[in-house]
Structure formats: structure tokens, C-alpha cells
Design goal:
The protein is an alpha+beta fold and 183 residues long. It is 26% helix and 22% strand.
Length: 183
């Protein structure tokens, strides 16, 4: 049977039907739910997390800051520079591989594709606003927390703060009981 002979039942969408998310639509129409190709899922930051997107040198060791990447789209290309924290001692080969994988994915499927993509992400998640014209996104792995501060202002730079979660756990264990991190 050729494609022209095959009878394909068209999917009809009526604007008066119920609104469905992708999973509900697939279930209703007996379609396979597509797998998510992303390894890193960005979520908008909360106002309580706003401090994670800026340098806090006096708390670097407690927070397990590996360093931050300064990012901008000058000339239509992504430019970046690394700023080490904690004397660069947490910048291990494992971290470098995780950071590279994270940035590579965001350049393909995220806000680091282009200046326009970053603006779309910012405008799409107003709940992640952490400052004027700035939206924060967080992704975590078992070992790292990546905090991406995006901007909608032309000529301004964005930052990606990188935290070692193992270092945070060690710092918490070393603090005397009764003391809270950041307090």
C-alpha cells in the first residue's frame, strides 16, 4: 500500500474542546508520548534563590561555588569568560565535563541559542524574575547546581553560577550544630 492509498485519520481540533497538555492529548488520541531529549531541565528561580545568581565572596566556601561564567551575545555570537571562585580548587575534570555538557545542551535547546532565544525564555517565565530585566533559571544534577541569570537588556551580560553540591554538604557537616548556612 502506498502513502497515497493509506487512509489517514486526521486529528481534528475543535476550539471548544477541553484544553489538554501534551500527555493528555497523546493519551486521548492513542499517541505515544514523546520522550524528553533534555538532560538538564531548567526551572524558574524563586525570589528566595535570587542571591545564588550574584557573587557572595564571603560565603563562597559554604555555598560550594566552583565559579561563574560571564556570557554575552556580542556580534550575534555567544562569548564567555570563566571567573574561578574558591581559588579554583573545585574546578575538577568532572566539573568541567558537566559544565560543558550543560552549556552545550542550552546552546541547542535553551536560552543560550541566541540573544533572541534568551529573551523568549525570559519573557516566557516572568515568575523567575530576580532583578530588573533579569530572570533566573536553575538546573541541578546529583553533583552540581547551575544558576543561569538571563537578561533582556541589550548590551548587558548574563551569568552562570556553578555550585558543587558535594562541597555544600561538606560545609554543612563541618559547621557547628545550631548554625544555619547563610545566617
Amino acid at each position: 500500500m502506498t502513502n497515497t492509498e493509506r487512509k489517514v485519520k486526521p486529528l481534528r481540533c475543535n476550539i471548544y474542546e477541553e484544553l489538554l497538555d501534551l500527555a493528555g492529548f497523546c493519551e486521548k488520541h492513542q499517541l505515544e508520548y514523546p520522550s524528553d531529549p533534555r538532560k538538564f531541565i531548567l526551572r524558574p528561580a524563586s525570589s528566595k534563590e535570587a542571591g545564588l545568581f550574584y557573587s557572595q565572596m564571603e560565603q563562597d566556601e559554604q555555598l560550594g561555588v566552583v565559579g561563574h561564567v560571564r556570557l554575552d551575545f556580542g556580534g550575534g555570537r555567544l562569548h564567555h569568560s570563566w571567573w574561578p571562585h574558591n581559588d579554583d580548587r573545585f574546578n575538577t575534570p568532572e566539573f568541567k565535563a558537566a559544565l560543558q555538557e550543560f552549556v552545550d545542551e542550552l546552546r541547542v535547546r535553551g536560552p543560550l541559542q541566541s540573544d533572541a532565544a534568551m529573551r523568549r525564555w525570559c519573557y516566557g517565565y516572568p515568575e523567575g524574575e530576580i532583578g530588573q530585566e533579569q530572570v533566573g533559571f536553575i538546573a541541578e544534577t546529583e553533583d552540581y547546581r547551575f544558576c543561569l541569570r538571563c537578561t533582556t537588556m541589550t548590551g548587558d551580560h548574563s551569568c552562570l553560577y556553578c555550585y558543587g553540591l558535594k562541597q555544600q554538604r561538606l560545609a554543612m557537616e563541618e559547621k557547628p550544630s545550631g548554625m544555619m548556612m547563610g545566617g
